[in-house]
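Sanity check

After download, print the first record. It should look like this:
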Amino acid sequence: MEVSNKQVIYRDYITGFPKETDFVLNTTTISLKVPDESNGVLVKNLYLSCDPYMRILMRKVQDNNIFTSYIPGSVTMQPITGFGVAEVLDSKHPNFKEGDLVWGTTSWEEHSHITNPETLFKIEHTDVPLSYYTGILGMPGMTAYAGFYELCSPKKGECVFISSAFGAVGQLVGQFAKLTGCYVVGSAGSKEKVDLLKNKLGFDAAFNYKEEQDLEEALKRFCPDGIDIYFDNVGGKMLDAVILNMRPRGRIAACGMVSQYNLEEPEGVKNLIQVIFKQIRIEGLSVFNYYYLYPKFLDMIRPHIKEGKIVYLEEINEGLESAPAALIKLLSGCNVGKQVVVVACE
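Expected structure tokens:
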């Protein structure tokens, strides 16, 4: 049986800041049965996740050892990919059956044939909103967990600073740090987000980086005794300022560089000599290396969600047609909470 299948395709490699017109909605058809020769699954996409890393994939990358760019519509009419939540409609894979709910990498379309379902996680717990598996219980949650606990080795009483603290990852890192007994400071890009960080998510302090003329002085003001742990989501000038304010033997988890994603020439970091003087450890974070910890992560976070010790904020857009606007909203920093697109009813 074949059905119509709406898709989101991006037109061509993007320079500068993406626009909604860089994307096009396409309608094709798809069979609801997995081909006999395939070991894959056929899924109905329920929720799609908008994530900052997707901007990197919209530019042409020469070194494919790092990651693989999206293939633009000018080359082949294939939808872009990202994380999502889906229902299995047909399966030729022994680990999945019809009716299973899964999260993992899928395509921005109504139905997807996933040829490598080994990358999918079966959803065993449905006592929370399924959209949570695009965020707090999915890739962003694992990123926050692995980056904070595995890379940063936090200790009670330490000062933790998080940039882009209101993002899908940052809001969790801050709450993990509070649960550990740390002093937590975050930066965000609006007064509304700063207020939510302090009043809703429990941060000790927060500031709007757009209102600060001197980031180094701002960090001295909010972290007067220095920073033990920096969870970096933005890179650039903020990273440079943080390095000057790190305490000896501080730890920096390099999770994202969102301030650099739309630049043709990345900004340099000038203060790296302080890494030597202060014996600072900087480590890049690739969440895929830590997926083996997912069961342990669920055991930790699910009780905190049930008991209300961890709060998670989402901003949800309805319909696949709204996906380009939702992604642009995320990349421009105008979203309030994890940006999610509802494709179909559960």
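If your output differs, re-run the checksum step. Summary of this record's structure: The two ends are 21 Å apart (CA to CA).
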